[in-house]
Structure formats: structure tokens, C-alpha cells
Design goal:
heterodimer, A: mainly beta, 7-stranded mixed beta sheet, 11 strands, 48% strand, globular, B: mainly beta
Chain lengths: 118, 107
Amino acid sequence: EVQLVQSGAEVKKPGTTVKISCKVSGYTFSDYYIHWVQQAPGKGLEWMGLVDPEDGETKYAEKFQGRVTMTAEMSADTAYMELSSLRSEDTAVYYCATLPLHGDFVFWGQGTLVTVSS
Amino acid sequence: DTQMTQSPSSLSASVGDRVTITCRTSQDIRDDLGWYQQKPGKPPKRLIYAASSLQSGVPSRFSGSGSGTEFTLTISSLQPEDFATYYCLQHNRYPRTFGQGTKVEIK
């Protein structure tokens, strides 16, 4: 069974950094990019970027460029998303997902709520 | 970036109604578009990929069409479990971009 299991909810102060993990199982980690998607409370979906677990190559949305780092640790079958200089607008649920262009291999993590509050 | 214009932002419909949601893109993305359904507190679920291909296990009342810059998701006969928010997502170029979402509510 394919699973993407994310780390738990976080409460962070403004200006700090959060790092979320996404552990995959049930498939070969290097076969699919891991995408990260942000969803602020009551708002829509926003694509943040992706990491290729095979070689670590990343693509980031300009909105997050400079503040986000996505990595993948092959030995642990785990992807990470680190967001720095947190502000209140970063309060959101963050999802990891495989989003292949075609086919049925679409799986999502359960989401991680990050709350940024002083 | 490829801008996505999804409409309407919300709609009210009854069980059995035919529902159409449109997504327009600012650049030609061929057929590199998917449609997603999201229910509260859950991650999205892909319904359609490559503009018109039905994801495995998705009921046939869902269909997608279009190419280039204009795309449509149609629900031929709305069912109670279809009340949700729907998003389009282009994956022709980076950054990937979602539409703003369409909330389908019960009339």
C-alpha cells in the first residue's frame, strides 16, 4: 500500500523556521517527484515546488523562492520541506504529493498544519 | 507564470443537475491539465488528467474537455457526494499553477 505520512502539526513564532517531513512507503521513492502544496485556512491550493528524490533537483514557485528548501533523503525514503522567515501568512496546511502528469499514481500526505503566531 | 482563471468561484445546484466548471489559462498548455476535487479536511483527489482522461475509480459522470487555453469539467448528474470544491492544475510549465477553486454547494 502506498502511503505518504507527514510529520505532525507545528506552532512557530514569526521569523523562525519550520521543517516538515514526508515519509513514503509502498513504492520506489526515486520513481516520482515529491510536490509540496500550501493551503491557507479557507483558501485555495498553491503549488510551492517539487524535489526529484533521485538527484535532489528542485523547482520552486517564485513566491517562496529564497525562503523554501526542499530536499530528499533516499536512505530514509523521506522528503522534507523547510520554510524560513515565517510570518502569519504562512499559517496553512502543507501537503506533500506525487503528481505525475498521467496515470493513477497520485498520492497525497495527510497534511501538516503549521500555525505561525507570536 | 501561467495564470489560471477558474469560473465560477461558487455555484449552487441540485442533485441530478448538470454542472460545468471552466478553467482558462494565460498560455497555451496543450492538454496538460488536471481536475481535482477536495472535501473539507481532506487532501485533494484527482479526477481527470491530460484534460480529458478519467482517473481510475472515478465515476463516469465526471468528464473533462478542452485543450490550449480553455478547459471544462462537467458533472453530468450531480450526486450528494459531489458537493465539494474543485480545482484545475496546469502542469505544462513551471511553476505549476492551480485555479482559484469552485465550491459546489447544495441548492
